[in-house]
Amino acid sequence: MPTDSTTTLLEDLTWLRTLARRLARDPHLAEDLVQDACAIALSRRTPPNQWRAWLTTVMQNLLCTHRRREQARLRRGPEVRGQEPHEGHSLLQRAEAQQQLVAAVLQLEEPYRATVLLRFFEGLPPRRIASSQGVPVATVHSRLQRALQQLRARLDRDLGGRANWLAAFAPFAWSSLATPSFVGLLLMQTKLKAVVVAVVIASTAPLWWPSGAGHDAAAAATAGALADRSDGSSAAGRSSAGTTSPLRAERRPVVAEPSHATPEVQRFMARGRVCNCDGAAIADVLVAAEGASAVTARSDALGNFALELTARSASVTAAEDRFVTVLAGEWSSEATIAPVVVVANAVSLAGRVVDTQGTPVAASQLLLQLPDDFDSRFQVPLDRAGRGRWGANSSSEGAFALPRLPAVGGAVLLVTADAFAPQRVPLPPTDDDNLQIVMQRFHFVDGELLGRVVSPTGDPVAGARIAMGVTSVVSDREGCFGISLRRAGWPTAIVAAKAGYSPGRLEVPRSGGKQREDWPAQIVLRLGPEPQKVRGRVVDQDKRGLGGAEVWIHDPTLFGIAGMLPMQLEYLIAGGEVPAQAARIPVPFADDPTHDGNFTNQASPVREPTACWFFATADAEGNFELPGLLDRTYTLRALDPTSGLFGEVAGVTGGSFQQIEIQREVWPELRGRVVSRSGRPIADVRVEHAVVAWRSNARVPGGSYQGTAVRKGRETTTGPDGTFVLRDVGKRNCFVKFSGDPIVPTNIKADAIADPKDLTMIVQARCQVEVVLVDPSEADQVACRDAAGNMVDLAILRRNSSHFETELAIHNGRSGLFVVGEDAVRLVLLRNGDIVREIAIAPDPARTTTVQ
Question: Residue 349's pLDDT band (boundaries 50, 70, 90)?
Answer without folding.
Answer: very high
